């Protein structure tokens, strides 16, 4: 029998998405339950693959980096899996998203603040991707809200 996600699980995920450093004790206090129940729920959510990763959102500007999103549209008939496998090997590629709509793939890059370097990286990536029909580039200036649920 497959475990189900309930209202408490969703609340737990929301709290962690705002601050993944909360302790089980703090989570239990906020959700009016025990630390042991939180521990069991966390283990269940991790085993189910609902919680994939605990992470931070850095201020790229203060670190001397630029956050760039590439929207890539592949030509009809081009296989997407080989493209994704190539992109997974790239250190500067931080997120790869399969998409339906204007783009086939959306790629998030974090690169040093150097326009020539950014141009070089984008050109380098585009030569590794067979069958590009169109590519849109967006420079992210600030992440003003980042909520998961």
TrEMBL record:
<dbReference type="InterPro" id="IPR036390">
    <property type="entry name" value="WH_DNA-bd_sf"/>
</dbReference>
<dbReference type="GO" id="GO:0043565">
    <property type="term" value="F:sequence-specific DNA binding"/>
</dbReference>
<keyword id="KW-0805">Transcription regulation</keyword>
<dbReference type="InterPro" id="IPR019888">
    <property type="entry name" value="Tscrpt_reg_AsnC-like"/>
</dbReference>
<dbReference type="GO" id="GO:0043200">
    <property type="term" value="P:response to amino acid"/>
</dbReference>
<dbReference type="InterPro" id="IPR036388">
    <property type="entry name" value="WH-like_DNA-bd_sf"/>
</dbReference>
<dbReference type="InterPro" id="IPR000485">
    <property type="entry name" value="AsnC-type_HTH_dom"/>
</dbReference>
<feature type="domain" description="HTH asnC-type">
    <location>
        <begin position="5"/>
        <end position="66"/>
    </location>
</feature>
<dbReference type="Pfam" id="PF13412">
    <property type="entry name" value="HTH_24"/>
</dbReference>
<protein>
    <submittedName>
        <fullName>Transcriptional regulator</fullName>
    </submittedName>
</protein>
<keyword id="KW-0804">Transcription</keyword>
<dbReference type="GO" id="GO:0005829">
    <property type="term" value="C:cytosol"/>
</dbReference>
<keyword id="KW-0238">DNA-binding</keyword>
<dbReference type="InterPro" id="IPR011008">
    <property type="entry name" value="Dimeric_a/b-barrel"/>
</dbReference>
<dbReference type="InterPro" id="IPR011991">
    <property type="entry name" value="ArsR-like_HTH"/>
</dbReference>
